[in-house]
Design a protein that fits this description.
The chain is mostly helical. The protein is built from 10 helices and 3 strands. The protein has a 3-stranded antiparallel β-sheet with strand order 1-2-3, with no helix packed on it.
């Protein structure tokens, strides 16, 4: 009886030992399998797993992200894209404006250079007949001064002088209409001939004006323009095209440096190997 009892006890112990051994082998197998999985896992995934163990806000994919979080992310992304587009559009607009200004400046400079070249070419083609007047008219400001004064001299000077006009009509002559101080013989030996009593040395001619200094010519021209403008307004009213032209001529004359103008005229004649008559 005792032997039988001992045998059963040994059998139970053996069974317990076997079961415990099986459990230990199973645990060891699971640990070994987990180690193998960890070994083949990518480094970044391992780090992510370690970092996200205690992070309640981490989501492994968009499928696991709450709807509110997805909306927040989309709104943030849309806001960033909108700012980028706005910055890009502003930069593009500024660049386009700068480019347009640069093109306009270049175009203006080219047009100015082209106009200057055309003017120079035109002046070089002006036919010169070998006279002092043609040289001065074409190549210097004193020529323009003289020319402008010859167009309106009667607004700034009296010629012929009063004493000439008061002379009695010569014998056998009649006054030549439209030319005070000039007479034509109508009888006697000189019929048809002209008698000019005017003072040629004070006549409003190129020869006499060109001999005057530019300062005197400018003074005479400004006086002539003033009187012409007053008469123009009296007959045609204000703000006419002619009045505007007279204003431009006044501005031009007032800006002239007379000594320089005279020096330029002398140089023109010297180059042309000419002298005033």
């Amino acid at each position: 009886m005792s032997d039988s009892r001992n045998e059963r006890s040994r059998a139970v112990k053996k069974k317990i030992i076997i079961e415990e051994s099986s459990d230990e082998e199973e645990f060891e197998f699971e640990d070994e399998f987990q180690e193998q999985v960890e070994a083949v896992k990518p480094e970044k995934e391992k780090e992510g797993d370690d970092n996200n163990e205690d992070d309640d806000d981490y989501f492994s994919s968009d499928d696991e992200v709450p709807l509110a979080e997805l909306m927040r992310r989309n709104e943030k992304k849309a806001s960033v894209e909108k700012k980028k587009k706005k910055v890009a559009a502003t930069a593009k607009k500024k660049s386009a404006k700068t480019t347009a200004n640069q093109k306009a400046a270049v175009k203006k400079a080219k047009e100015k250079a082209k106009a200057a070249a055309a003017k120079k070419k035109l002046l070089s083609k002006i036919p010169v007949n070998g006279t002092v007047s043609s040289e001065l008219y074409a190549k210097c400001d004193k020529g323009k001064l003289v020319q402008s004064l010859l167009c309106r001299w009667w607004y700034c000077m009296e010629w012929p002088e009063l004493e000439v006009l008061q002379l009695p009509v010569p014998d056998n002559c009649d006054p030549l209409k439209g030319f005070p101080g000039v007479y034509i013989y109508t009888s006697g030996e000189n019929v048809g001939k002209i008698l000019d009593k005017r003072n040629i040395n004070t006549a409003p001619s190129f020869k006499n004006f060109a001999k005057k200094p530019s300062s005197e010519l400018v003074e005479m021209l400004l006086k002539a323009i003033e009187n012409q403008t007053r008469e123009l307004i009296e007959y045609e009213g204000e703000n006419t095209t002619t009045e505007a032209q007279l204003k431009d001529l006044t501005k031009w004359a007032m800006k002239l440096k007379c000594e320089k103008v005279d020096a330029e005229a002398r140089k023109v004649l010297r180059v042309a190997k000419m002298e005033l008559p």
